[in-house]
């Protein structure tokens, strides 16, 4: 057994024993790449995900809701920061990843390519979109990669808080005027199917799942998580008094789970490939912010360089 | 009581309008750290505004804006924030100015927070317990804001040639709105005599001192621009604003006004 | 009757929303001649929108938006323009897109007017006398718009290197919104059968021909960008818009909604 | 009598006989300069004057009012065009004048340095501001300089139309809700004094008036025009049902005119010197539009040059 094989064996043993891989540890190149891709995509999703919610900050209909929304969008920027930091422990920096994002070389969650059309969308994003994200992310708190797992613990805690806030907003609207109730049902109708798509392709079409599960980067298949999400959401919908736009959705006593209809995989594929309702808009917005900020970042670097020189001279 | 309500509205509107402006940076900042920091400042100011609007409401300021088509459960703070036209906002016009680029925003935060910090520091020691409590909470928030923006003023002023120009242009654009900060409205004059309000004319020295310290470090010069004039002697404190406020409120109030019978 | 009302709203909203967007150029155009020309286009479209909204009103479309707090004398066109939320606007999403710079605006006008010209040309020969009259008036207006913008597309496309890039970027930005122009809504499908409406799927050839002639002269290439997707199969004609429309209407409707009991 | 003296004598004779000076005619340098300054200032006023009205185009509260306002602002751009053309006959072009405007080397009417705060301001601008402009401008239709006089004929016709539209808007508002009536009175309160200032300093403080009157560039003194404006406006205010914010305003039977209070000349001077409520805003807006349009104008020139070359080659 040569040195490399020994390293791999140690790595595999650590992972199999539910141990944590830390930045200083040896790891297989595939593991590193997969992690970078996954964490970067997650970070990008937090950042792009600020836009659909940010669309309503200036128009939030009460000061309390404005404060909640502003704080939520701020938290998402914070999540982006932790996650980009986690990728830095794997040897890639934020600038590089930001450029990959705005050049469409890396992806973000497709859900953010749908528009927020009313304020009820803010509640539904909290309830369904954050709810689906939590289903996806809770298992990642036990990810084999230490910095990612630790970031996820913090993020999941905040996401749960956001989800409760979203649900509370919807409860308030459902107890409000007819117009508010209609707004909620309309928002649910638009977001339900896209939220199911957040779990990714059906297991049969998800070739990387097995390797990711072996590496303990992923812990459940897409369909397992999707089912868990459906089962969790149904009683909540009943409590709210809304319905999901799926005539095939019904309790299956045999499976002890809800059956649900077929997802429109053509729509899913189109959105993933850049032809969703807001893909171009989201990327153009992010690109503009990045480019408009270039002179600020340049100035900060120039100032830091000057300061370093001054300190050298002074020393 | 009416004077105190009006004074609460002044202090509240200064914060509410500034907070709304800062929120425009959301998803547009040059770095994620700036996203977080600017949202923080917007949230602090929004928090100050909410307490002060509620106080104004307790003092009866919201009643004239309530109508029969409005949900009775609508809170005073929301009635005052969403159902007043710009002619009833009592904020200084500095608060509503278009923030423009990042440099101008930093100049604006420095001036705004330095001024409001001096105001809140004074208020903390005065006799009204609610205002004193608001001020006690606001002082460290404003001190943070000022430090944050001053850091960027130095980096941009002493960064590249281009950023230096923009930083100077930022202060030049903000400067005309500073004169109004030091004008005493009759309401303030009466409350100063009653020992409840801070005399705005006393706050100039503190801003001057802050800038005298900051600008040279940032290699910037003190702007020399004429003050924005009043309209027949009336300014923001009288509800005579710049055109920017009406446009801002059109957006801010749109949804609340589309559903006056709703609460959120 | 409901279908015809809905069709009038589609054609009206396409014009109203585009007119409002173009009005944003007022006081911002690169030359005075462009101020005049862009205002002209906005006015023509506003005129088309007004007749069509009134027609929709005659057919009963305004009633569901009237409330008891509204001035009874409020005209149908104003009820429909000012008291509908974006979810009830039936315009194509092309109409509401952010115009961005001058080049993008010129690309947008070319595409919009070429498409609408083909539509109105078809409508002119159909059986509804009101629609035919609107179309007869609109055809020369749209032809002028297309010529005006095409002139700039050539100048910018074949001007400087920089303007060439921006002109191409302008078409690239507009392109994803063109696919929706050629989708037939069920209302349209039914009216086509009744001989009252133009089949949108028949209009693609005319835009293609216009661009095939224009783009090479302007040294530009035909954009290759994916179409903007629908939301669960629904688009602007169903009231499912981009986020831009809600923001636009917040401004546009603000004053009218602040005074529902007033007429102007 | 040498040649120059002869030219001057001919010029003086033409002017004294109410004849027209045309671009090809000899004219004294002072006359040319005064005209350029005056026409440029008038052109700039049309262009800057678009901004306070433009502020309400996007929010006009009915489609009819939107169309009227859009057309009015468009007319003002048209007036700017005629007037800049008139200056071109005197040997200066629009680009040069635009640069003088945005560098504050030339002025525009101070009235446009006040903000439009409500939609009633649109009516009051039509009624009072256009009304004052018409008082100033009608005599200019008989200006000794032909191109200027002809431009003024057309402009005055359109201005009268605008004034009637403004008055009609105010009549409608005064017949409307209490809130609308309050809006009108509030707007009148804010615009009355600035409209009186539109006639310029009191005659004693207006040193150039005599020369301009001799040259038939100006035909009445500032105070004469101001008095005419006050006398004209008072019955209109009564018809509308609004008051002017001047306790000293009252009929003087002896003079057959209205007396009015003292204008705040300090405010006037401050606004003229750049310290009005909107001076910085108006110039910054105009400068931004001009600078943002530079690449468009550059492209148009580049294209024209290419076309010229192509035609040469083809010839």
TrEMBL record, chains A, D:
Q: Name one Pfam family in it.
A: PaaA_PaaC
Origin species, per record, is Actinomycetospora atypica
So which domain of life are we looking at?
Bacteria
Q: What is the lineage of its organism?
A: Bacteria, Bacillati, Actinomycetota, Actinomycetes, Pseudonocardiales
The name under which this protein is listed is: 1,2-phenylacetyl-CoA epoxidase subunit PaaA
